[in-house]
Design the sequence.
């Protein structure tokens, strides 16, 4: 399963990178197995802080692209990162790492849940896990907020767009596609105008 890595699009010097397709597969398998209830915090910690395959700024940019593509965000990110280092074989190895072992675990958990779903302790545990997942996502968002200082629109406008997004989705309960199209196109247009000649 090991092949010579394809050169990344840009010169990354001595920066850490996956050593092989096997390393990519195992890394994404371990990452996927940690992602119960909310994977954003785990992905950011593993890829940025521990492995250092991405900088915070790169992570924010790639995660944004992964979010607007169809399909699960973390699967999209794994495909993008695998392709970045090893081309198509890397994308397939990362995808296999994200899906193979977690699929087996989910099927086993589904069978187990079917046996105990009526138990009040199981319902309470699931509610508790939901609260933990919300906390993880919030903490990761706050941790990554520092990268917005480098955004061409500046921190105040970025925070305004984030608050409008929260209001649209959480309070007004607008469909995600409308909020994404409205605020996403607005943010892209404003950024393009700011960066333009």
Sequence:
């Amino acid at each position: 399963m090991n092949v010579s890595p394809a050169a990344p699009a840009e010169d990354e010097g001595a920066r850490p990178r996956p050593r092989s397709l096997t390393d990519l597969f195992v890394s994404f398998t371990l990452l996927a197995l940690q992602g119960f209830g909310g994977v954003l915090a785990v992905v950011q910690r593993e890829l940025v802080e521990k492995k250092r395959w991405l900088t915070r700024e790169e992570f924010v940019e790639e995660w944004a692209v992964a979010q607007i593509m169809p399909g699960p965000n973390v699967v999209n990110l794994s495909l993008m990162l695998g392709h970045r280092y090893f081309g198509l074989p890397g994308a397939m190895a990362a995808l296999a790492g994200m899906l193979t072992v977690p699929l087996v675990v989910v099927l086993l958990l589904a069978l187990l849940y079917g046996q105990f779903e009526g138990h009040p302790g199981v319902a309470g545990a699931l509610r508790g896990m939901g609260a933990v997942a919300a906390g993880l996502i919030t903490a990761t968002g706050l941790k990554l907020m520092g990268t917005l200082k480098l955004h061409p629109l500046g921190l105040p406008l970025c925070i305004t767009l984030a608050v409008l997004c929260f209001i649209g989705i959480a309070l007004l309960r607008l469909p995600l596609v409308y909020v994404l199209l409205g605020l996403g196109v607005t943010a892209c247009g404003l950024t393009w105008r700011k960066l333009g000649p």
Notes: The longest helix spans residues 73-116. The radius of gyration is 19 Å. The chain has seven helices and no strands. Residues 17 and 53 are 5 Å apart (CA to CA).
